[in-house]
């Protein structure tokens, strides 16, 4: 059983994280799935990978339905739990390794119903064919195709999201860190789009903007407040957030915030800015002393 767990854990967590937007919940579901599997007659399971995927996917569908009700009372905007990797982060904690796992896409998954999310993830992210996906979800192949088509229409076009090179992302991110550290936010005026938006998630546990902030002027004003009033005693570091350049904020050796960005594919300016400071969503980040 341990060998099965180690073999399939990353794959199953990848499915669950995409569906739930929470690495913590994804790991819990995968762990519970293997506990349940211990009571099954595994030698008689023809395709263990498919069997486990079906168990995890169905658990996620039930979890999504339950979580939607809880989100109604969530204070402020709910954002997914970011997956942070980089020189400060323990490489053994790199649970999910996937270059296509963008933070913007995980956010957009919230626009989909539980079944749409399951079909989209299995087909788009894991390249399962419609017959296999339909069988896994106990729906017809025709219905599976319709659900996938509907999900694709709801998800905005992200085809140009990765067109900004890592070099440009790293240069802009380094400038962003310099502006935060020095309190000179005007230094990054030229790398923000005019219609840039800022969305933060403090979960009611950390003071931050509750509503979405729109326009360069308003976002700059908010960043200035963060830099001058809340940045003392903290350090900022370039990291990878869901496989794109982002920023990890650290205080006393502990992660206290994560910035991630969506870049305009034509101008390479920051089009969307996400700021997660809810401590519950930063627990998975284990950093090295520095």
Order of helices and strands: HHHEHHHHHEEHEEEE
Structural class: alpha+beta
Distance between the termini: 38 Å
Strand order, largest beta sheet: 1-4-5-6-7-2-3
Question: What's the Cα radius of gyration?
Answer: 20 Å
Could you tell me the mean pLDDT?
A: 88
What is the helix tally? 9
Subunit structure: Interacts transiently with the RNA polymerase catalytic core formed by RpoA, RpoB, RpoC and RpoZ (2 alpha, 1 beta, 1 beta' and 1 omega subunit) to form the RNA polymerase holoenzyme that can initiate transcription.
GO molecular function: DNA binding; sigma factor activity
InterPro entries: ECF_Sigma-70_Domain, NTF2-like_dom_sf, RNA_pol_sigma-70_dom, RNA_pol_sigma70_r2, RNA_pol_sigma70_r4_t2, RNA_pol_sigma_r2, RNA_pol_sigma_r3/r4-like, WH-like_DNA-bd_sf
Organism: Aneurinibacillus soli
Task: Describe the protein's architecture and organization.
The chain is α+β, with helices and mostly antiparallel strands and 290 residues long. It has two domains: 2-154, PhyR, sigma-like (SL) domain (Butyryl-CoA Dehydrogenase, subunit A, domain 3, Up-down Bundle), CATH 1.20.140; 161-281, Nuclear Transport Factor 2, Chain: A (Roll). It is 45% helix and 16% strand. It contains nine helices and seven strands. The protein has helices at 2-20, 23-37, 48-71, 103-108, 114-125, 130-137, 141-154, 166-182, 216-230; strands spanning 84-85, 192-201, 213-214, 235-241, 244-251, 254-263, 270-276. The chain has a seven-stranded mixed sheet. Helix 1 (2-20) packs antiparallel against helix 2 and helix 2 packs across helix 3 (48-71). The chain is globular. It starts with a helix and ends in a 14-residue tail after the last strand. The mean pLDDT is 88. One of its GO terms (biological process) is DNA-templated transcription initiation. This is ECF RNA polymerase sigma factor SigJ. One of its GO terms (molecular function) is DNA binding.
């Amino acid at each position: 059983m341990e060998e099965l767990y180690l073999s399939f854990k990353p794959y199953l967590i990848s499915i669950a994280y995409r569906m739930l937007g929470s690495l913590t919940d994804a790991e819990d579901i995968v762990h519970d799935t293997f506990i349940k599997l211990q009571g099954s007659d595994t030698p008689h399971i023809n395709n263990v990978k498919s069997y486990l995927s079906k168990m995890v996917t169905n658990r996620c569908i039930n979890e999504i339905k339950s979580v939607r009700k809880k989100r109604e009372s969530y204070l402020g905007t709910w954002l997914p739990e970011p997956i942070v990797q980089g020189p400060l982060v323990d490489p053994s904690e790199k649970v999910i390794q996937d270059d296509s796992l963008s933070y913007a896409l995980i956010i957009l998954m919230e626009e989909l119903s539980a079944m749409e999310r399951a079909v989209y993830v299995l087909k788009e992210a894991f390249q399962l064919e419609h017959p296999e996906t339909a069988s896994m979800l106990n729906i017809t192949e025709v219905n599976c195709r319709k659900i996938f088509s509907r999900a694709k229409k709801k998800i905005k076009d992200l085809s140009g999201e990765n067109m900004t090179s890592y070099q440009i992302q790293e240069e802009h991110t380094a400038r962003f860190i310099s502006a935060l550290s020095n309190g000179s936010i005007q230094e990054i005026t030229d790398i923000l789009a005019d219609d840039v938006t800022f969305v933060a998630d403090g979960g009611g546990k950390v003071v931050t903007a509750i509503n979405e902030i729109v326009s360069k002027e308003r976002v700059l004003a908010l960043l200035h407040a963060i830099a001058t009033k809340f940045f003392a005693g903290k350090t900022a570091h370039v990291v990878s957030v869901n496989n794109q350049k982002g920023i990890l904020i650290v205080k006393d050796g502990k992660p206290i915030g994560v910035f991630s960005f969506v870049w305009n594919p034509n101008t390479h300016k920051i089009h969307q800015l996400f700021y997660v400071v809810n401590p519950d969503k930063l627990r998975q980040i284990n950093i090295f002393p520095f």
